[in-house]
Write a structure and sequence with these properties.
Blueprint lengths: L17 H18 L7 H8 L3 H14 L2 E4 L3 E4 L9 H7 L2 H22 L2 H16 L3 H18 L3 H14 L2 H11 L3 H17 L3 H23 L20
Antiparallel strand pairs: 1-2
């Protein structure tokens, strides 16, 4: 239990103390959870947003981390929820794997999550998926696109209703967030490819909303195969994936 005596007095900068910072941060976390946000802004930006000093903010963050509301990784940021069991070893894992290996695992896991989501997602889950998909399409820059894209896939995983699957997804997603992989994916999304990915996101959600489990699984697989091919092209290589076929293939980008 966090005792009042452990909380600091007024920040040296004269801004509200850590008790006030903690109250404001709790409200901020509730808003983030409702919007599907998974990572808080950097400390400087967050302190300005909450109108508190950085010292008070750090103390409030320490309390929330002790409560299991957030977890932090040096140099990577602050994330919502409890720390994944293997989070501390993810840096080493990222350096030992490759984009091709990551996509191979995603192709095994995420289509199944989409199928389960079609069976179990609530109306609120589906509405949030659509809202997040709109945020991806309207994102002003690569960083925002990356964050909202991850939020959509995470929302689908959550809607699958299987905590073990969600934990596995979160492990994969942390590797996916490695800076090298992010840069590569953004190159793969360049140009007309971005519009196709938006179309595919909408179709995945449509199949989930229609309770079409097989269709949702196929739509997610088609989407990930598109991403895998474009990643391979961005790397100047090839991946051993079957050619796309069906309504979500790249040739349908204008449809």
């Amino acid at each position: 239990m966090i005792m009042d005596a452990e909380l600091p007095g007024p920040d040296p900068e004269g801004s509200p103390n850590a008790v006030t910072a903690l109250e404001r941060l709790r409200v901020r976390l509730e808003d983030a959870a409702r919007s599907g946000e998974r990572q808080l802004p950097p400390e400087r930006q967050l302190a300005a947003e909450l109108a508190v000093g950085r010292g008070a903010l750090r103390r409030a963050l320490e309390v929330l981390e002790a409560e299991g509301q957030i977890w932090r990784v040096q140099g990577k940021g602050t994330f919502l929820g409890s720390r994944p069991p293997s989070a501390d070893g993810l840096d080493g894992l990222s350096s030992r794997t490759s984009p091709a290996e990551m996509m191979e695992v995603r192709l095994e896991v995420e289509p199944t999550l989409a199928r389960l989501a079609a069976l179990r997602a609530t109306a609120e889950d589906i509405e949030m998926m659509r809202r997040v998909a709109r945020r991806i399409a309207a994102a002003p820059d690569a960083e925002a696109r990356e964050l909202w894209d991850g939020a959509l896939h995470h929302r689908i995983a959550e809607a699958a209703g299987n905590r073990l699957f969600v934990g596995l997804f979160e492990l994969i997603d942390k590797v996916r967030q490695d800076a090298t992989f992010q840069s590569l994916r953004e190159r793969a999304r360049a140009g007309a490819g971005q519009a196709l990915l938006h179309v595919q996101h909408d179709r995945i959600i449509d199949r989930i909303a229609a309770r079409d489990a097989a269709g949702a699984e196929a739509a997610m697989r088609e989407h990930l195969e598109t991403v895998a091919r474009r990643l391979a092209a961005a790397m100047g290589g090839r991946v051993p994936l079957a050619p796309a076929a069906g309504p979500f293939a790249e040739g349908d980008a204008d449809g």
